[in-house]
Specification:
Two copies of one chain form a homodimer.
Chain A (H helix, E strand, L loop, with lengths): L3 E5 L8 H13 L4 E5 L4 H14 L4 E6 L1 H10 L3 E11 H11 L3 E5 L6 H6 L2 E4 L7 H12 L14 E4 L6 E4 L2
Parallel strand pairs in A: 1-2, 1-5, 2-3, 4-5, 4-6
Antiparallel strand pairs in A: 7-8
């Protein structure tokens, strides 16, 4: 089974911790296998996401501090493909089929405004979720929903302690541990 | 033409400014008509979003400081419908058709963990974008993409100064003013 991992580049400790937490929650909920936070360790974000996994189940890996260039090169050395989400890239609807058909492990890079130009060259596809100034959290969300063809809505998250039961206007949480 | 406006509840000045900016950029790029930031004024976020609009074009309204309860009540008094995005709600794929078929003005509420219980009752639909702990930015992104049926990818943003030209591996920006 092909893996899909998100690489978060440009994370600054503390200042970006909340947005990076949003990136991780999005990756997890929408079906990615894990997130790598490049270059900077952030044990707070790691702990938050591990706690979510323990409570709500599923398999999801989180690590931080690995250098971005080496991460991308190692991924490509193992025949993985690389998507870089950027407002400058080709339109998602025009390239998603080609990417999905490539069928291998996929590293999805999200970043900030200061993305190194080299990332554009290293990526197999630079993909835009609209060509407007955009949240990387939002771009990742729409990308994953398209790439995994809405499968996250039915994804099982086994071995958690609790499960949310969808309801019309309340908050229902079931104990499953 | 029906309007779709996003109501951001639970914004705390400064602490939430970056995440709220992500909410606004997402709303704008993915086709909403505007954002109302409830209860707290945030002129910094307002200015950021207005500057994006001036530079990249399109019509998008942004305001902050209006009380959330009154905003929802006024909206409903004018026959508008209300969607509240929450991990506790009914699954998006199960309700999106009904919401789209309602065809009127739509207020889409996004918030934080501390959403008042009353919002669940005031909403016409409580909708989940997965029943997992989730980023409100990501939930909004996927919701808008579904609701507007991917039309944002071809949306025109007239009267801007620049336009991003999608390219394979570079950054191309065209002057259009």
């Amino acid at each position: 089974m092909a893996r899909l991992v998100v690489l978060r580049i440009g994370h600054r400790f503390f200042r970006d911790s909340r947005v990076t937490t949003h990136v991780c929650l999005t990756a997890r909920a929408l079906g990615a296998d894990g997130v790598i936070i490049a270059d900077r360790e952030d044990k707070t974000v790691e702990a938050t996401i591990r706690e979510v996994g323990k409570r709500f189940g599923g398999k999801f890996s989180i690590e931080s501090g690995r250098p971005w260039r080496k991460t991308i090169r190692d991924w490509k050395d193992q025949s993985g493909k690389v998507v870089h989400l950027t407002a400058y890239g080709l339109k998602l609807p025009d390239v998603i089929k080609e990417i999905r058909d490539s069928n291998g492990d996929l590293l999805v890079i999200v970043g900030s405004e200061k993305m190194p130009g080299e990332v554009f060259k290293l990526a197999d596809w630079n993909v835009s979720v609209t060509n407007q100034p955009m949240s990387e959290v939002a771009a990742l969300a729409v990308y994953l929903d398209w790439h995994l063809q809405h499968s996250a809505f039915d994804k099982a998250f086994p071995n958690g302690q609790v499960r949310i039961v969808p309801t019309q206007d309340g908050k229902q949480v079931e104990d499953v541990s």
